[in-house]
Design a protein that fits this description.
GO terms for molecular function: 4 iron, 4 sulfur cluster binding; ATP binding; metal ion binding; transferase activity; tRNA binding. This protein has a single domain (44-292), classed as Rossmann fold (3-Layer(aba) Sandwich). The radius of gyration is 20 Å and the shape is globular. It has helices spanning 23-40, 58-69, 84-101, 110-114, 127-145, 157-169, 173-178, 203-212, 229-243, 247-258, 260-263, 287-292, and strands spanning 12-15, 18-21, 49-53, 73-80, 105-109, 150-152, 182-183, 193-195, 272-273, 280-281. α2 (58-69) packs across α8 and α6 packs across α9. The strands form three sheets. A six-stranded mixed beta sheet has the order 5-4-3-6-8-7, sandwiched between helices. The protein has a two-stranded antiparallel sheet with strand order 1-2. With 304 residues, it is of the alpha/beta class.
Length: 304
């Protein structure tokens, strides 16, 4: 088959909208869609400093690549989780990705920072749970300490659809009330604005963009991700998408239209400053400082 817009051989068949595209026209389509997503949800402005959290994987690498190409002021942060060879390889990929882009890369290593890597803490809490807590705290405080206007993550349409479905299945209304393409800045800027530029693009499209543009990335899954329920929900949604193209985007857009239904049940919890680090907390000590047993705040300010 040939590209819809030229005579070159098709590189990808899009199922929604239905069309064949060559690498050049697919790249244009992808970048235009990211640009429209940013504008539709008023994610970021041209003068804002953006911190892209890069894992070494495809989604964050593509996010950094497209934002840089669209002219945004981008720097990157990689959080080395201390998970053996997996984390070592992920850091190397992140370094190469940022060198290719010509953007600054900042690296925080969890084992050096906190004494133990992810998976090495004796706790009843699931590994993925405290890993998420740790990553969110680090990238938010790093962004706050260094004056970034927004944090961009590589969450794509598949991630969002599976998250919504998982929380609907369990009626986690508080999570459903907070989900979306943009999380505004709160608590006098100590909770930095978070944005998801790939919000309306599927995982398949992200992989295709990386291939079309020669972006190398870590393909190995985190060892702790095996058996995660989100993978099961993704498989269900993929099966539905194959039968009815457009299922994922229509599901997510429908959720956004009805999100106010969940917001009415959101319990208003007054945030306060954590006694240890001064960051927003629901109690006297924030979840991060309590879990890691911190007695002094961590200073992420870039020096030199």
């Amino acid at each position: 088959m040939k590209c819809k817009f030229c005579d070159r051989p098709a590189f990808i068949k899009l199922h929604y909208p239905r069309m064949y595209l060559c690498p050049e026209h697919f790249t244009e389509y992808f970048e235009r869609k990211v640009k429209r997503t940013i504008e539709r949800y008023r994610m970021i402005g041209p003068d804002e400093r953006i911190l892209v959290v890069v894992s070494g994987g495809k989604d964050s690498a593509v996010t950094a690549h497209v934002l840089k190409k669209l002219g945004y002021n981008v720097e990157c942060l990689h959080i080395n989780l201390g998970i053996g060879e997996y984390s070592a390889k992920s850091e190397e990929y992140a370094k190469r990705q940022c060198e290719t882009l010509g953007v600054p890369l900042h690296i925080v290593r969890v084992r050096e920072l906190l004494g133990k890597g992810i998976g090495e803490v004796r706790t009843r809490r699931p590994t993925c749970s405290y890993c998420g807590l740790t990553k969110r705290y680090i990238f938010n405080k790093f962004a706050h300490d260094n004056g970034f206007d927004a944090v961009a993550t590589g969450h794509n349409l598949d991630d969002e659809a599976s998250f919504i479905l998982a929380n609907l299945m369990n009626w986690n209304t508080q999570y459903l009330a907070k989900q979306g393409p943009v999380t505004p800045s709160q608590f006098n800027g100590k909770l930095v604005k978070k944005v998801k530029p790939l919000y309306e693009l599927t995982e398949r499209e992200v992989v295709a963009y990386a291939l079309a543009n020669g972006i190398e990335y870590e393909m190995e899954e985190c060892p702790h991700a095996a058996g995660a329920t989100t993978l099961e929900y993704k498989a269900i949604l993929n099966g539905m998408e194959e039968k009815r193209p457009g299922t994922k985007i229509n599901f997510v857009k429908g959720y956004l239209r009805k999100k106010a239904l969940f917001e009415t049940e959101l319990e208003e919890t007054e945030l306060r400053e954590c006694r240890t680090c001064g960051m927003p907390s629901n109690g006297e000590v924030c979840s991060f400082c309590r879990f890691w047993g911190l007695e002094e705040p961590i200073d992420f300010r870039i020096r030199g």
